[in-house]
């Protein structure tokens, strides 16, 4: 197990922080792993919707950051303002390419593995997508870490590993885990690989099961989809399912702060945390909020049925008791997250033109 020790160091530029990574529990055998201006982390998928927020939060806390991204879903614009920052290295490449990945991992102390297929539904159309971009990619990240002697990893999993649970709020020790989508199966398999590398090679890991993460810059999800539909037709909003689906919506700022907090305070070899708000909101209410906020007056039409698509989980309400016991509680509730995301993404949505008669 490992722990960071931080020391303030005054300079003419203000207070800087010196970080030392210690291996715990070794007594005289404890070893200093790193000393310098700050530890270096690798963030896979660092140009994505969550990744670029994480990169900035790490920088604010004194880390140097190397981003590995193939820019298939993340955008260069998310990192544009960091291009001249000496603390940031941007490496364009794919986690499925072992030489690129080994280059990304080398001389880092911590890996944040966020890269994955971001679209759950797309896995039904391209059935090998989640296997390759999820499970196989995770195995290659772990193997590169083993070769480079990097021992700490945070993995972005998902609430979909629970499948359709029967206990709400759903705790981390709920089982059996029976995911209903290929995306969920990939995340669960990846969790298994992470655990195996921890116990086989002496890693330490933090696994985060996300609720729906929203906020500025979102490029997928129900709010994004609703707004895109209204851009194409401001008179009508189609909602998949009957609108009764209820889930938690976590602000991206809460998400990255919780992740970092958990890695600083979770001391087990494998630390598993649900990351979610304390409440939920229905898809029908989200649709109504989108229509109201955009001023389109669109009529809402439901396709019917309890699920939006095959593999959709109609109810998600995660327990965050474990996270709260650690000392962290999310700031935002689901409705606040939905409203802020709508405000950030809504322009330009055309308003409905008045109906003309005769």
From TrEMBL:
Residues 41-275 form the NAD-dependent epimerase/dehydratase domain. It holds the Pfam family Epimerase. Belongs to the NAD(P)-dependent epimerase/dehydratase family. This is UDP-glucose 4-epimerase.
